[in-house]
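Handout, page 2. Input:
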Amino acid sequence: MSNMTDQAPLLEIKGLEKKFDLDRGFLETLKLRGGKIRRETRAVHAVNGVSLDVHKGEAVCVVGESGCGKSTVARLVAGLLTPTRGEIHYEGNRIDHLGRQAMRPLRKKIQMIFQNPYASLNPRMTILQSLEEPVRHHNPGFSATEVSERVIDVMRSVGVDPAWAKRYPHEFSGGQRQRIAIARALTVDPEFIVADEPISALDVSIQAQVLNLMLEAKESRGLTYLFITHDLSVVEHFGTRVVVLYLGSICEVSDTETLFRNPKHPYTKALLSAVPQLKDDRPNHIRLKGEIPTPINLPKGCPFKSRCAFADKRCDEEQPKALQQPDGSLVACHAVEEDRMTAQV
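Output:
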């Protein structure tokens, strides 16, 4: 890990925020408050001040429960959404403000694999057409033979029989479709892949095959991954580093081994305690009590305070900053900073 921190990051995210407005029209913004009509706009605060570096060759896993902003981060990085605030840099160049035409060369470098293999392939196109289209689009100088060779080569590398090329997506299982979706991402020879829960829609028996395929592609092609998942057992095998999100804010960032051996944030501890394990020494399951705040009206202070056993007055007032720990991990928690958790255990 030390050599990674010396080199410039491939991807840099700085203070990223994304809000989705709920009240679109003028009339929707008018509210009756204390007998007076006031104008108020409501918004979902999906991502709140996320900063993160991803270095070449890493597989950074972003984890958290549903609605924590994981997929929004993925779509912002892939250029499918525009940030409300903050910056995204790729290879040292800012990319979050680029238009469609300016983003085109980057589409070849940054590819995305989506969660639902049933929705991510065009049902009216054969597998061959789906795979040839991005190759032609990004390599206009390729001859028909070169396009065909690239597609057949990639199909074989992901375990898709080239004889299937003339079939349509509905003729394949979910696992086969996801392999085809991975093949489509790899046809343009990318450097960076944003994978948004790519195995959660698949049977457990197929998940390991697809994960192994993605790991093989990482080694053989020198890929870098931003991998979105809610499943920590996947992270342990796939990720080099882990980012734990809660209500759009970062709780903890750590290399995988450190996180599983010594989680520090109360939320990370609770998540890890819920992972089924065969060992006898695993921590007792931590039950989180309290209400989950709504991302429409984010609470002041720490977003996790309503469910945290260690919360105090400071947590009500002040949002914690991510501070570096002696083992290199980053943790945003007042209780960790003040060493209150060890005192209460």
